[in-house]
Design brief:
The protein has 710 residues and is α+β, with helices and mostly antiparallel strands. It is built from 27 helices and seven strands.
Length: 710
Amino acid sequence: MRYLLLAVGAAASSGAVTAGPGPVQSAVTAPTSNPLLADWSGPYGGVPPWDKVRPELFPAAFEASLKERAAEYARIAADPAAPTFANTFVPMQLAGQRYGRVMTMFGVMTGNMNTPAYQALDREWSPKFAAASDAITFDPGLFARIEAVYAARATLDPQQQRLVMRTYDSYVRQGARLTPAQKTQLSAYNQQLASAFSDFSRRLLADEGSAITVTDPARLAGIPDSVRAVAKAAAVERGQTGWAIVNTRSAVDPVLTFATDRALREQVWRAFVNRGDNGDANDTNATIARIVKLRADRAHLLGFRTHADWRMQDTMARTPAAAMDLMMRVWPAAKARVAEEVRDMQAIADKSGARITIAPWDYRFYQEQVRKARYDLDQAQLKPYFELNNIIQGSLYAANRLYGLNFREITGTVPVFEPNMRVWHVTDRAGREVGLFYRDDFARSGKRSGAWANTYRSQRRLAPAQTVLSSNNNNFARGAKGEPILISLDDAQTLFHEFGHAIHAMLQDVTYPGLAGTPRDFVEYPSQVNEHWLLTRDVLDKYARHYQTGAAMPQALLDKIEASKTFNQGFATTEYLSSAIVDMRLHTLPDGVVDPDSFERTTLAQIGMPREIVMRHRLPQFNHLFSSESYSAGYYSYLWSETMDADTFAAFEEAGSPWDKATADRFARILLSTGNETDRAVAYRAFRGRDPDVNALLRKRGFPAAPARK
């Protein structure tokens, strides 16, 4: 399970009604001198003009596209004809597309190329975007038309009915029925939150741009040459001598895993886990407290007890209690496994004469010693088989074999925003165009940490039809020029995970854009399923070949990987689940008054957090929660999705092969292609014949079955 951030193309309208970027007949003539306002032109249904994107172009583009979107919605609201699906919902689906294109480009730049100029734009304009969206949601004339069609929805076909119901519910949840005074207050909350999200992101990005410099090579003992090369390249980039260990997970984890210098491990660990929590100009605690309080106040205004209750209305779990129930069924087994893992690590430390008690900065190092002792498996043995380009090709091969997607690389023929990006043209089994797939794989200054997927343009059949523009974004480390780029098994799983999001986007086949997005606790499901194909023998034999000898990974080495699959699951589950539990408890505080550091410590003590582990994302650096609304009261969704994921791959195993065509076709037809055209829980039951069982997840992680509910 990858605990990564998904980002999607910016919404082109308010509420649940979203329209991906694409050509639209505008009611307002937009300035043609600004390339950000032009319809996306060229082949493949038009592509973003990444080569022309500049921060100074955005203010005029924001102003023009916001004005145009407002006029399009005003025209719908003022239509003198009686409200119908055709004259209200169809134009709503097509409204705001120029704004959507502009916001997609802006969102991609702030995530991938976040210079001070973009940060300043984000601070200035985020509250304006929130106010403009609220103006649409709060328009009484528009909502009256939505309400009228909602009342008469029985005459519509099933997809139209679902779009109408979801749109109506979304507008109500976002305040369309409030009084004018309440709407003013709600808009103020939304604008303040938008500013706070920007502030949090800016502070955290600054801390993640820092690095620990090492000048004594002896301190790097035990660290593989490939990791040292990355640190050397980072130092050169900063104009420093020696080696620079950048304060991001991809740079820190290998040091914590392999460095024999315990003092270096502790130094690197403390810098990493204290991002945003150093009492300096980049400290995020006050910003977090402000966000949590604003969220609670907004929830009360909208008639909900807590932010979590409000956020979970449109999820599969539905309630905070249901999410907590799943998490607490897994938590005891995870904690118990941590105790076993620590005993094993302490025994090795004692035997070596280290005279230490296992601390958080020791966990990865000694777990690697246990792995070697128990499974004769060294992570350094695996890296030579995971050359980045080969693993990318393996991911494309699996998507072709499972779903009939064909990929032809066209790098250099369409604009990109960074010279190392790669692009593929995608077609289906019948040769029909699906769209384009972009990859931006490498870490750099100004790029946020982690890995995520973007959708520059979503598919739709509603005329004018659109093809997909999808991307994956990683933070793999580049070594010296000309050197092969070797990634870890964990990084390779991350690559397959993010590509699962792209597959989901590319297989989508919906009519209405408003039925494209899925609930937060479904979003990670397709990507987590896709991780399973990395270690299939076919993918390994064809693509996980030794970068020097070309030899396939020996079966004996794969057997060791398979035997160790449930190894260290106590650590992996506990560091993730503690973050998810803290998130949910934080956002079920009725008054929202919180001191983040104190709350984190108290909550972890209450649930019995092992002292040897820290949350995967401590609150001061929890981008998922505080850079936007995306995962607030929603970090549990990875576990919810993995419960379905484990059960889904079991369906392939029951069919006798991970490549079983009937199962893959059924999975794609019922779950991957349908967006949100049907309730996702109903769709899952249609695919599997029943609800998912949490015990499939527990078996996957090597935990005992959960006790039956009383």
